[in-house]
Amino acid sequence: MGDEAIDRYLNGGVDQLYAPRLLPDMDKAVGILEEKISQGAPIRIVGDYDIDGVCSTCILFLGLRRLGNTKNLGLKALIQANQLDPGKISVYHIGFVTGPCLNAGGRLQTAKLALALLLAKDQKEAWELAAELKALNDQRKDMTQQGVDEAAAQVEQLYMNDKVLVIFLPDCHESLAGIVAGSIRERYNKPVFVLTHSEEGAKGSGRSIEAYHMFHGLVEVQDLLSKFGGHPMAAGFSLPLEHVEEFRRRLNENARLTEEDFIPKVWIDIAQPFENVGEELIGELERLEPFGQGNEKPQFALKDLFIRSARVMGKNRNVVKLMLVNERGTALDGVVFTDGDLFLEEMGDKK
């Protein structure tokens, strides 16, 4: 990446966005819209039920209505419902606090709730919808944790020696299968397929590791599947219930994975002394956001640290607050998002 590309990322503006007409058939779409508008005909907007679909549907709706940059009552209500400071909203809050609330409606009930919130023109309506979506997200978190616990129990009891984990959770909400699969993948660093009951028999979602091409894995057993799709790191599929055990057996037979593939790999960008950690560094990192595929979050590391104290927090005991001390005696607070009790157990074993 050259200096020009870096400057474009850090200091780019709206004028640097790609032209909309680069999209295939954009001229046809514009022509259809112009015709319908001139006829006074209604225009239907069809969007996906997840946060991407809800937000893009809202943006398109507002664009067609020429509402411009009106302050959004729904988002303000959602920020308040989550007890956030409006002046300190970060990428983290969007990705892990307000975003999941918008997603929860589509996952557990209907995406119309999130869309109605984003389009709300009445403050009372916005507050009520925000409270409902937050409650749904809290419910979603509880249901997800229950699914993760049940999945982990199955793995520990039945599938620890499997290279590819196939877990059937009949009572898990199908929209949560991917989240559960991701959590189990992180815990065991193995490819994971989580299946739930559906009208078609069983419906599943998978999350993979770098060494396993998930879509290719499904192609090899496609005779067992009703339908499937995906890419190297994730997939979705459905199959008859009677094929589940055969699906598990053949995926594991076909898997060309070694024990080394299951060892988690962490790529460290640079060693970062405690003394360098401060508001200036945090500000510089914030300029690089949002992080994700193609712009990975920087990873810093430091050796020879001592854990002075550790305390498990959170309703689901999945947060550990640490007091870390380096070899020069400099202390720094730290947080680990993991199974808190397991972390303390492993920490005790290493003392």
From TrEMBL:
<dbReference type="InterPro" id="IPR003156">
    <property type="entry name" value="DHHA1_dom"/>
</dbReference>
<dbReference type="InterPro" id="IPR051673">
    <property type="entry name" value="SSDNA_exonuclease_RecJ"/>
</dbReference>
<dbReference type="Pfam" id="PF17768">
    <property type="entry name" value="RecJ_OB"/>
</dbReference>
<dbReference type="InterPro" id="IPR038763">
    <property type="entry name" value="DHH_sf"/>
</dbReference>
<keyword id="KW-0175">Coiled coil</keyword>
<feature type="domain" description="RecJ OB">
    <location>
        <begin position="268"/>
        <end position="345"/>
    </location>
</feature>
<dbReference type="GO" id="GO:0004527">
    <property type="term" value="F:exonuclease activity"/>
</dbReference>
<keyword id="KW-0378">Hydrolase</keyword>
<dbReference type="Pfam" id="PF02272">
    <property type="entry name" value="DHHA1"/>
</dbReference>
<keyword id="KW-0540">Nuclease</keyword>
<feature type="domain" description="DHHA1">
    <location>
        <begin position="161"/>
        <end position="253"/>
    </location>
</feature>
<dbReference type="InterPro" id="IPR041122">
    <property type="entry name" value="RecJ_OB"/>
</dbReference>
<keyword id="KW-0269">Exonuclease</keyword>
<feature type="coiled-coil region">
    <location>
        <begin position="119"/>
        <end position="146"/>
    </location>
</feature>
<protein>
    <submittedName>
        <fullName>Single-stranded-DNA-specific exonuclease RecJ</fullName>
    </submittedName>
</protein>
<dbReference type="GO" id="GO:0003676">
    <property type="term" value="F:nucleic acid binding"/>
</dbReference>
